[in-house]
Amino acid sequence: MHSILEDRHGRKASYLRVSVTDRCNLRCTYCAGAGDFIPHPDILRYEEILDFMDMAHRMGIEKVRFTGGEPFVRKGFGDFLIEAASRFPDMELCVTTNGTLIGGEIDRLAAAGVKRLNISLDTMDPEKFTRITKRDLFGRVRDAIDHCLDAGMVVKVNAVAMRGINDDELPAFVDFARARPLDVRFIEFMPVGLENGWQDSAVWRAADILAEASKVAELTPVNLDECPQHGPARMFTIAGGLGRLGVISPYSDHFCDTCNRLRLTSNGNLRTCLFSDKVYRLRPALRHPKLGLPAVEKIIGKASRHKPLGHELLERKPKNQGVCQTRMASIGG
Q1: Global pTM?
Q2: DSSP readout, 63-98?
Q3: Above 60 in pLDDT, residue 229?
Q4: What are the distances in angstroms from CA 299 to CA 8, 142, 260, 306?
Q5: Where along the chain do its domains lie?
C-alpha cells in the first residue's frame, strides 16, 4: 500500500519545512530579504500551524524545521516553539535562524526540549558580514553560537558558498569547526528568486570546496547511514578537531532521488519542490468553515503524488537565470 505522501518516483515525504514569516531583519542580497512582504492577515496563525502539524504527523511527517525569513522576527515565536515541543514530543523539531535575535531565548528553548538549531553565517569576517547583510551584527551571531553550544544544543552553521564572496575564507571556517563541537556546512548558491545576483560563475561548487579544504585539514568522510539527521549533507571529520565540515550540493550534484521534503510557506501555500514555482493554496481550505483540515489533507495527498524532480527543472532553465521566480525569503529555504 502506498503512503499518502509517496510520489510517483517512490519518494516518501517525512520532513516538513514551515516558514512562519517572510520578514527578516537582515538584507542579504542573495536571499532578497527586502521587498513587498505578505500582509499580516494572510500569514498563518500559530494555532493553524499547530493544527497543520498534527495532521501532517498523522500523514507521516516525522521532522519539522521552522524557518523564515527570520523566524524570531515574528512576535511570540519562542512561546510557539515551546508549545510545539510540548505538543509533539515524538517529532524532531528544528529551527533555522540567522542568530541575531535568539540570545534571550536560548536557555528556555533548550530547557523546553528544542535542541537543534541551524544558524546562518556566510563569513568569519565582521566587516564582510556587514557588507553582506547590511547590518553590523556579527558579534551577536558569534555569541549566540557559543551560547547555544553551552546550553547543550546541536548547532549547524550554514554558509552559502559564493565565488568572490567567501571563497577566500575556507581556512577560517575550518579553524572555526576545528575548535568547536559543531558542524560547518557549505551550501551551493542556488538559482532561486529574481535579482539575487545568481549566475553560474558565482557558484562555489562542493567538489572545489572539498578539494581546497583537503589542503588545510585532514578530512575523513562520515558514514551518513549512521547519521541520517544530516540529510543531503556530505560530512567530514577534521583530524584533531571537535567539529566537522560538510557540503550540500543542490546545484552541481543533485539529490532529488532521495528528497523527502515538503514546504509550507507563511501564507499557507504548499511547495513540493524548492526549484518549482508550483504552489498548492491551503489557507482558503484551512479557514473555510465547511472544508478545514480534511480538505487540506486531500490537497496535500494530491500535491505529494505530483512532486517533480528538481534537477529536471534545473536542466531546462535558461542560462544564468533563476529556476524559479519566488524569492528565497518567501519560500523558507
Answers
A1: 0.90
A2: EEEEESS-GGGSTTHHHHHHHHHHH-TTSEEEEEE-
A3: no
A4: 16, 42, 18, 11
A5: 15-331
- H-only helix segments in 18-169: 46-59, 77-87, 106-112, 126-133, 138-150
CATH number 1.10.1370.30 given to 15-331: no
Structure confidence by residue, pLDDT tens digits, 289-322: 999 999 999 999 999 998 887 655 555 555 555 5
156-210 confidence digits (pLDDT tens): 999 999 999 999 999 999 999 999 999 999 999 877 655 556 678 788 999 999 9
Assess contact for 43 and 332: CB atoms under 8 A: no
* Widest Cα–Cα separation across the chain: 62
Interatomic CA distance for residues 195 and 161, integer angstroms: 18
- Classified as helix, coil or strand, 290 is coil
- Strand 244-248 vs strand 183-188: parallel, antiparallel, or unpaired? parallel
What is the DSSP code string of 211-238? HHHHHHS-EEE--GGG-GGGTT-EEEEE
In degrees and rounded to multiples of 5, residue 93 shows phi and psi of: -110, 130
